[in-house]
Amino acid sequence: MIIECLTVGPFAENTYLLGDEDSRDAYVIDPGGDTDRILRLVSNHGLTLRGIINTHGHIDHIAGVQELKDRTGIPFAIHEQELFTLENAPQAAALFGMFNLRKPEVDRFLQDGELLSLGNKTIQVVATPGHSLGGVSFHIENSIFVGDALFAGSIGRTDFPGGDYQTLISSIKNRILTLPDDAIVYSGHGPETTVGWERRTNPFLTGGVS
């Protein structure tokens, strides 16, 4: 499996290129900008993009979606409960001086438990709300892309519209920490980590922070 992480934009958001080495098919997860860099990586690996899939709709994760759609023609999918966030994205971006953010057009909605084909592999959509109302994660083989639900040593904010602390903790414990200890966690910001490390040391999950 091909996994490339590009840290982009003023919020240092992690955009992921996820590809299958046999079929050369690929998805982009949470394109936050720097479309040229994404497309160079796609070309360097000889991949064919099949779609854009997003963990949630906050501005740092969707800032590059529409440009990538325009330049490639690939579809964009996100959970339906993120529509309110998408509708208000240009106004939210303007508060941070980002006056040119384009609201992306959604082609279809992701469903909890849905399986997406990536060559002969499958990506499972896992509902992980709490940071946002319709937040999802993407589980493939021994990896899970969690957006802003879980970070190395921390968790996502819950003070945005649609956020809820107890919902997020439940999502992490019941939908992410159920994976094996060696499962790799790819977050929307910061370094990768593992399920086992977070289970043992993350203060929000061990009772160190309540």
TrEMBL record:
<dbReference type="GO" id="GO:0016787">
    <property type="term" value="F:hydrolase activity"/>
</dbReference>
<dbReference type="Pfam" id="PF00753">
    <property type="entry name" value="Lactamase_B"/>
</dbReference>
<dbReference type="InterPro" id="IPR051453">
    <property type="entry name" value="MBL_Glyoxalase_II"/>
</dbReference>
<feature type="domain" description="Metallo-beta-lactamase">
    <location>
        <begin position="12"/>
        <end position="189"/>
    </location>
</feature>
<keyword id="KW-0862">Zinc</keyword>
<keyword id="KW-0479">Metal-binding</keyword>
<dbReference type="InterPro" id="IPR036866">
    <property type="entry name" value="RibonucZ/Hydroxyglut_hydro"/>
</dbReference>
<protein>
    <submittedName>
        <fullName>MBL fold metallo-hydrolase</fullName>
    </submittedName>
</protein>
<keyword id="KW-0378">Hydrolase</keyword>
<dbReference type="InterPro" id="IPR001279">
    <property type="entry name" value="Metallo-B-lactamas"/>
</dbReference>
<dbReference type="GO" id="GO:0046872">
    <property type="term" value="F:metal ion binding"/>
</dbReference>
